[in-house]
Write the structure tokens for this entry.
Amino acid sequence: MANQLARSLSPYLLQHQDNPVDWRVWSEEAFQLARERDVPIFLSVGYAACHWCHVMAHESFENSAIGDYLNEHFVSIKVDREERPDIDQIYMNAVQLMTGHGGWPMSVFLDHDARPFYAGTYWPPEPRNGMPGFIQVLDALHDAWTHRREQIADHAGEIHTALSQLAVGTGDTAEEVPPKSRIEVAVEQLLRSLDTKWGGFGDAPKFPHATDLELLLRVAARTEDQRLVEAVELTLDKMAAGGIRDHIGGGFARYSTDTQWLVPHFEKMLYDNALLLETYTRAYQVTGHDRHLDVAIETADYLQREMVDPCGGLHSSEDADSEGVEGKFYVWDVEEVRTVLGESRGERFCTVYGIQPGGNFEGQSIPHLPYPIAHWADKWSIKLQTLSEELQADRRKLRQARSNRVRPGRDDKIITGWNALAVRALAVVGAVADRADLLETAVTAARFLLDSMRDRHGRLLHAYRSGTAHLQALVDDYALTIDALLTLYESTSQTRWVIQAVELADQMRQRFEDTDQGGFFYTASDSQALITRNKDWHDGSLVSGNAAAATALLKLYRLTGKQRFLQSATGTLRSGELVLQKQSRACSALVSSLDRYHHHAAEWVIAIDKRDRVKKIRPQLFRPFRPNTTIAWVIDAGTDSVRLTAEMAAARIASPEQGAGIGGREVDAPAESIIAPSLMEGRAAYPRECVVYRCENYRCETPVLDPAPEFWTSGG
């Protein structure tokens, strides 16, 4: 019979509904049952695309003997880390405290007060490679619970105390915003950790670390320090050549198991691809090298083709496994390629993409580029453009052939913060590459978030599946959505996105901000109480919650001139001083936010006579990377099809809940009702098509009338 997980919305939890383990969802009911039976809690945390989660499930959770033992001596709780990152964050800290490392599946044993007393990750069912068998672990813990309860209580108390200290983790709040020197120190530390041969930072397993690359790019755009550009290009080029990139279908896998980026764990996550899509686009803006934009567009096309739900949001992930085998969907052998492409083209493709007899992964080959395509064009005396176009056609044929294979499983739930990352990235590459379809995908996803991912009070929700949105949003859901809406405003000129951003920012400040010490808690003030209430400072899979909040609020302050947003942002930076000072390698996004604070470049007010002219200006405006420039638009009166009055817009800003529910409907507001008055006053295009007002701290230079193309591309 199915267990309690059968009633879940989570694809990951549903994978375990028929296990012999009597799984429970995280609830007070489960803890009360453990108290009544006087047994400990076994907490298992994973996610749908996790390969080793599947391995442990097949080996242990589908094992009747292990299931019976768990049912007799424990209450077992299964959690999807993507649905409940608040739970995952706390207990991953516990795993790292106890073992020195972390990962998924995460296996934690708790007392009746939810305090952890033993933890690990994957255990095989029987002893293997120096690891104890899972049943041995269970038996030892059952014995300790039965005979040494006092020792367990003491240890749980010590771990809880350590977790409480980690929860805030920043010490005393600094009196001033950390100085500019923190940025320079962080960048130099980052460069020292660069793998100068293969790119990336640190040893295997190697993750893309998009926030590190973004920090280097934004500082390089400001300082023209070529060392930073070279470090980023080395990393991006090696990843683009490696097997971590899906050369046939587009997109990137989660991470590489080796230093060369060759052999990934094959799962594809929405957040990784959104972050990398934007990073490759920014690299193109900084360097002008088309190869980076090509990778960005390929990644965007993958997201648009494979990950968009009919509702308009984007799915969470694709699995590493198909037919129970890791990577089976993605690998090739020589004969398969020849069958699809023919003898001559197939042989050439195998040469270029490193597909050889014997393979490079369990007897088959992960396509990669041992040498750049230009190397083969030169060797074979073929025009580079000709060879590139023919290989592109070959990849399309192979993708079509691959579509007949059994696809990896897909986690089709929609996560607010992850979708916000995708909205921002698609808006950026759509503007830079002049791809209206990508911009429209971003707009549609944003409308979905605002229309369908909110409760009746207008507050954001975290997850959606099968027509149901649920679970309270976390601070990164809010902050990343605010940032995405501001990026949409820059790309489209439509002020309704700013109105929504202001509304969400006020909610975020009210529900998440620590008004005593500064910064933002990960969970809302009215969220379910856990054993600690964390503040999120360190970048992991995503941008840290506090970095995302500080960045979004600084952008919103510069655009609206509202001091409350500046106060919250600077309070966050002051609260994060100790993290910035001692742990900058783990918080590049927070360093980027500090860079935004100290190096705000300018405000550009772009006044045009017709909204249609945005399309003409957009690719020129966004060709250079202007990381610290605020973009504001003025569209001459009378051109909007539907508008909110200034009074209505002001009412929504003053009382966010009153205006909740407008979402992404086709309404707009006069720019002067929401954008900083000092930017808007006296700005107009008439009688010109376009006028650009370049300002610094709201003081503007002589306007540029109908700028020539070189004005935009030179950075102004």
In short: The domain at 4-168 is CATH 3.40.30.10 (Glutaredoxin). The CA atoms of residues 349 and 391 lie 7 Å apart. DSSP finds 28 helices and 19 strands in the chain.
